[in-house]
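Running this now, will post back.
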Amino acid sequence: MIFRINGNKFLPHQREWWKLPNFIKLLVGGYGCGKTYIGALRCLYNSYRHKGLPGKYVSPTHKMAQETIIKTTLDIINRCGLVYNYNKTLGHLVILNWDGHIWFGSGDKPDSLRGPNQAWAGIDEPFIQDIEVLNQMLARVRIGNKEDREIFLTGTPEQLNWGYDLAMNDDNRYDVGVVYGKTKDNIHIGEEYYKSMYNAFTPEMREAYLNGKFINLREGKAYKPFDRNVHVAHRDVQGLEICAGQDFNVDYMSTEIFALGNGWVHFIDEIRLTYSNSFEAAELLQRKYPGIRIFCDPTGGYRKTSATKSDHQIFADAGFRVHHLGWKEQIRPMDHINSVNKLLINNNLTIEPGKCPNLVKDFERVVFKSGDVDKTSDLSLTHASDAAGYPMYYLFPLVKRVAYV
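Update: finished.
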């Protein structure tokens, strides 16, 4: 079987990136601009150029890898009728047609990337990964034909971190080429997809998430769209499902209760306990709102505020339907902040007057400090907004990553 890559079908920014002569090839683009697809195709191309030698393709987490880069790579392989073996446990893919070796890795624990040398490497969404991931790949890519060795990176800019420094390369430290891609340039995604995201983003978010520009989204207020004159208002929630978000802390155990509408939420109550534990919080919530769905901080699966059970188990045993990610997964602060802001922009998140004072306080006062959410200047802040943000992330994610041609 002959496997051909037709560059004439690439989008202009994909084609430009593909032809970069640099050792490090960086594609910075908005959501849906075709980064995942072109990255998967590049890893197949590299496995062909370096027959018999491994290369590693790294995603921020194993779960994200399964949903994006692995899925997209296997889709291409199956569509082309290639013969392969895939060891899901190890994340090792062998393409038998040409003895191509692709290893999939997770960047949440950079030390796990140590191992045998490689002929090439790819990093998906580098701007939400630690610089140590890049350092590990720089140290590992050292075998095979020197002229064909490379590290490619594809991602959406989220902050002015090491990825920004790499792209700017002000000190000429790296042999790096950079190409920028816009969401609207992808003719395959459809106008409605673009419009839905455009309407959900602040101007700053549009520049980063649609135009692929480096914008410092982590400065100033975390919840910039919030306006108490707009978002603190009465709303009829009779007959709607009542749910809650839960943040686990000994000092500020926080529960935010909301009514779930069709595409919108209305926060109706909150529970705030100090120097408490999950048993007390679960008991109090059960008295007021028995058996409701509760969306929890994923770390509650192992970080205990009690000595006998995980926080998740305590709430499940109390009769609640507990929703959470696997305890090894994490929700980055920007993930749930973006989900909340998306709802605020479209006035799809409101708060009943006088019922959730800590949540209102958080929405008005939580800020970024040195690129991260400031959790130290005022220890009473962030807990209510975290509790409210977890369910928004689960129910209304900012965008579901999809690979487009």
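The mean pLDDT is 90. More later if anyone needs it.
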